[in-house]
Every structure is written in structure tokens, then in C-alpha cells.
Automatic annotation (TrEMBL):
Protein's organism: Antribacter soli
Segments forming domain HTH lysR-type: 1-57
The protein's name: LysR family transcriptional regulator
Any one GO MF annotation of this record: DNA binding
InterPro entries assigned: LysR_HTH_N, LysR_subst-bd, WH-like_DNA-bd_sf, WH_DNA-bd_sf
Length: 286
């Protein structure tokens, strides 16, 4: 199957320009225009508006969703063939890692390329062949793997620790032996999504509507600690995390949740990838 037309359509949509898409792909602008026009004839409808801006139409958005999936499957197929035939044996290892686990990939080897992505994108990068190895983290029930793994991917546990609540040391709940998240739905939480045990994850996995206030979209634990210390809201954290001055870490006893870090590789991964996965696990310590 010739997927160049689909690639042209996706690139035009991503760059909002036929000329920029042509430059990125190394095609002529005329070829890109012909690719998109051919797809539109086949679909029987306009997929992209041209003026005043290049924007997907409602039909185009649906078409693009399927086009991206087809291109991802094609990329995954090429990667699978490369693994099966050994053609990737000498290629450098590419690691996809979530922001909270980025510090673990230093042991993956000096030749490794590192893609820092959110959990869903990191898992997708492994599935599509963009990455040889994925290091992902998230909140789950004890013993449960994180979602988003396919049958041909081997999941190796790196670390699992109880979830806790980070709060100011003078907070009325700081001296408790444990906390029930269901009793904290009216408390003010930081609105975090890219740090370990983020509020978004806690709310999703525990199926609770946590009241969120100040938003932090970064990945630095020290910033989270400063915001909690300043009274902007509570935050989740692994119970094993270091506790900064002026703060307390109280374990969550209900519902039972753990913070989990996993290494994922294809079951047919080459030796260099397996060695990199072992390096990540060793970097995490006991």
C-alpha cells in the first residue's frame, strides 16, 4: 500500500501549510497538493479548507484520525520486520520515557536517543516503532500493570511504592497515620498532570472528583513542594519520595493505590534493547 498521500495529508494538517509540508517531506508542493486532492476525490468530500487558513474540515478530522492510525501501523510493521530480520541489530537504542521517570534512563547507554513523552505517547512510540524501549509511570491498584500494553510487549516492573499525600507540616491532617481519599474530595488540590502521582491520575484511578485549584503543568517535584508549602493545595507523591522541609507525607490507605514504574520492550527485542532495559531497572535500585 502506498501511504505517501496519507503522509502528505497528515503533514499538511500538522503544519497548516502545503508548502511547509512539502519542505518537511522532501516532496514538491504540486505533489503534496495532488496527494490531498486525490484523497478528497476518493472520500467524496473536502478534507482541508484552503482559505483563509489550511484547517481540517469535520470530515477531515475523522479521516485524519484513521490516516494517523494507518501510518502508525505501517511504522510498527516496518519496525517488527527489522527486529525479526536483525536489520536493527546495530542501530542505537531509542528510549521513550515519561517526565517523572526521565532520571532512570541515564543508565540505558550513551548511544540511546531519549524521547520525553507523556505516558500514552511513550507507550504509542514503542508500539509504532519510534522507540525500542519505553519507561512509563503511573498510579494503579497494587499488582496491576499500567494500561496501554499490547500482547507482544513485555512489561517489567521497575518500582512500586504506596501513594501518599504531600501536605504542609502544620496541616491538621499531617499527623494522621493514613488518609482516605474519599474524605479529601472537598480539599483543595494542586492541578498536576505530569509529575509522579499527579492529581489527574489520582482522580482518574480512584474515580473521584478531586477539587483542583492552582494548575502546574511542569515536571519538577521541587516546584510542587513549593506550591504545597505555600498553601496552594495538596499533592500526591510516592511514599518513598524525599520529604522537603516544612512538608509531611501521609500514606493513602483507601482506596489502595500504588505508584508504579515499568519498563516495556517488544518480546522480540534485540540484545542492546534488553541490556538498556536492565540498566534502567538497576538504576532504580532495590
Amino acid at each position: 500500500m502506498d501511504t505517501r498521500a496519507l503522509l502528505s495529508l497528515v503533514t499538511v494538517a500538522d503544519t497548516a501549510s502545503f508548502s511547509r509540508a512539502a519542505a518537511r517531506l522532501g516532496f514538491t508542493q504540486s505533489a503534496v497538493s495532488q496527494h490531498v486532492a486525490g484523497l478528497e476525490r476518493s472520500a467524496g468530500t473536502l478534507l482541508l479548507t484552503r482559505r483563509p487558513a489550511v484547517v481540517p474540515t469535520p470530515a477531515g478530522l475523522e479521516y485524519l484520525r484513521h490516516a494517523r492510525a494507518i501510518l502508525a501501523h505501517e511504522q510498527a510493521a516496518h519496525a517488527a520486520v527489522a527486529r525479526a530480520t536483525g536489520r536493527d541489530a546495530e542501530a542505537p537504542v531509542t528510549v521513550a520515557v515519561t517526565p517523572a521517570a526521565e532520571h532512570l534512563v541515564a543508565a540505558a547507554g550513551p548511544l540511546a536517543a531519549v524521547l520525553v513523552l507523556d505516558t500514552t505517547d511513550a507507550a504509542s512510540a514503542l508500539e509504532s516503532g519510534r522507540a525500542d524501549l519505553a519507561v512509563v509511570d503511573g498510579v494503579a491498584a497494587p499488582g496491576d500493570p499500567l494500561p496501554g500494553s499490547s500482547p507482544d510487549v513485555a512489561v517489567r516492573l521497575v518500582r512500586e511504592s504506596p501513594v501518599a499525600v504531600l501536605l504542609p507540616a502544620d496541616h491538621p491532617l499531617s499527623g494522621r497515620p493514613g488518609l482516605d481519599l474519599t474524605s479529601l474530595t472537598e480539599a483543595r488540590w494542586l492541578d498536576t498532570s505530569r509529575v509522579a502521582c499527579s492529581t489527574a491520575e489520582l482522580a482518574s484511578v480512584a474515580r473521584l472528583a478531586l477539587r483542583r485549584g492552582t494548575a502546574y503543568t511542569g515536571t519538577t517535584p521541587a516546584v510542587v513542594a513549593s506550591l504545597v508549602r505555600a498553601g496552594h493545595g495538596l499533592a500526591g507523591a510516592p511514599l518513598t519520595a524525599a520529604v522537603p522541609d516544612g512538608l509531611a507525607l501521609v500514606p493513602v490507605v483507601a482506596p489502595r493505590l500504588v505508584y508504579r514504574v515499568e519498563v516495556r520492550i517488544h518480546s522480540t527485542a534485540r540484545a542492546a534493547v534488553r541490556l538498556a532495559a536492565d540498566g534502567v531497572r538497576e538504576a532504580a535500585g532495590p
